[in-house]
Amino acid sequence: MGLSRHRGEVGGRALVLQTRSVQNEIVPSLVIFGVAGQLGSRVAVEAISRHNEVTGAARRLDRQSLPRGVTPATGDATSPESVRALAPGVDVIVMAVGGADKTVYLRAARAAVQALSDMGNAPRIIHSGGGGSLLNPEGIRFVDTPDFPAQLREEVLGQAAALDFYRNSHGVTWTYMSPPPGGFAPGERLGHYRSGTDWPVVDEEGNARISYEDYAMALVDEIDSPSHLNARFTVGY
Predict the structure, then answer these.
(1) Using CA atoms, how far apart are residues 234 and 18, in angstroms rounded to an integer?
(2) How many CA atoms lie within 13 A of 98 on its CB side?
(3) How do residues 20-68 score in pLDDT, each as one tens digit?
(4) Which CATH number is correct for 28-236, 3.40.50.720, 3.40.50.12280, 1.10.10.60, 3.30.420.10?
(5) Which of 65, 96, 174, 228 has its CA 20 to 30 A from that of 13?
(6) pTM to 2 decimals?
(7) What is the CA radius of gyration of the chain?
């Protein structure tokens, strides 16, 4: 195992990856905020299965509940100081946060951008957000349609605010990843998916769906092989 540095450019900004080599493969390191959640834990398991170096950050962590192989760390996704403290030597910061406070998505985005925008060799940000900000065939956000569930509106608008913030940010490299606007739940890892941009990926019957497990696989694919830099993308079967 060795350390490699890979240099690229995104929007005129140098992008340096500090990666480990495992059996001649490039293996990024990452910090996951929200690692104890249903999605964050699955991202951690997927990343560890590929020999990625994974640190799990939360304000309060039960180490016994973490996936095996995760290095625990105390961290607050909404604190720029906390994000910055965990960033050195890391390739990717994953935001998989959630909770009762629906402002957490925007506050986490702001903290990450503030922490990393003036940091040399800063990690990329991959923010897992919601699917309600995806567009329907008429080009309208699902959250803005009359039949969108009222009980979900506050959360989706909070997630959409984070996406808007990233799109207007400078000095960082980010990726915002949306699940389908419905059909997103724990399930089976089928090992395949298709990707899109601002419209849901639908199957032959017009359904947009994916399991948490395959969504986590797609997210770690983006970590290992970045292809949606400074953009939003979505996945589905």
Answers:
(1) 26
(2) 14
(3) 444 556 789 999 999 989 999 999 999 999 999 999 998 887 766 788 8
(4) 3.40.50.720
(5) 96
(6) 0.87
(7) 17
